[in-house]
Amino acid sequence: MLACCVAFRRIVQVNQIPKIRLLTIDDAMEHAFQDGAGAFARQFGAALGASREQIGEVLVQSLKHLDEVPREPPFGCYLTVDATGSIVVGTCGFTSGPNENESVEMAYYTFPPFEGRGYATAAAEAMIELARRSRRVRCVFAHTLPERNASCRILEKICMNFAGEFVVPKDGRIWRWELPLDS
Questions:
Q1: CATH of residue 18
Q2: Which of 109, 107, 60, 67 shows the shortest CA–CA distance to 88?
Q3: For residues 134 and 173, what is the distance between their CA atoms, to the nearest angstrom?
Q4: CA–centroid distance for 142 within its chain
Q5: Total tally of structural domains belonging to the chain
Q6: What's 47's DSSP letter?
Q7: pLDDT tens figures, 110-162
Q8: What is the rounded CA–CA span in Å between residue 139 and residue 163?
Q9: Whether the Cβ atoms of residue 141 and residue 177 lie closer than 8 Å to each other
Q10: Residues 80, 116 contacting (CB under 8 angstroms)
């Protein structure tokens, strides 16, 4: 990693990135969600807040995806929780386990009421750290729309490198971003 990028990351981490914690999405979480906001808060220590409907959709979609593309931890799906306020602010995860090249794709999303506060950056950093700690990944990658946008700025902020524009059958034209992990 470039020295200037390392220094930039330190400044960003200290000054702007909120502390988060990740909650693993699984059947138990979906059951607690169905039992109501109080049951969810008691079991997971996090409030659902105004994003309750979106969280429900995320749980359904994530569990379906996990059934369709099984993988071992830590390469699952997560809810992102503000560690200070204990409220669910978004979601993140991996689209699958590591591929034959020991690469893994990460994804993240911040619910609209919490956008622009650094949660997506914190989630992306958390995904990279999970991949690094697994010791099974050589490269983390992400896809964005093929245009300058907030996701591009997040990926640049965490020192991911633009790898080019590609056509992916299910998504069409995308930009690919990569971060080789230290061995």
A1: 3.40.630.30
A2: 109
A3: 30
A4: 10
A5: 1
A6: B
A7: 999 999 999 999 999 999 999 999 999 999 999 999 999 999 999 999 999 99
A8: 12
A9: yes
A10: no
How far from 15 is each of 9, 25, 33, 59, CA to CA, in Å?
Answer: 10, 29, 34, 31
Where b means 16+ CB within 10 Å and e means fewer, 6-35 reads eeebeebeeeebbebbbbebeeebbebbee
Q: Assign 45 to helix, strand or coil.
A: coil
Q: Is 141 exposed, middle or buried (0-12, 13-18, 19+ CB in 10 A)?
A: buried
The residue segments making up the domain with residue 119 are 3-180
Sequence length of the chain is 183
SS3 118: coil
Q: What is the spatial distance between Cα 12 and Cα 8, in angstroms, rounded to a whole number?
A: 6
Confirm if 144 and 174 have CB atoms less than 8 A apart: yes
What pTM, to 2 d.p., does this model score?
0.90
Within 8 A by CB and 6+ apart from 113, the residues are 49, 50, 51
How far is Cα 125 from Cα 127, in angstroms, rounded to an integer?
5
> Which residues in 111-160 belong to E strands, given as ranges?
139-144
Task: State the DSSP code for 168.
Answer: E
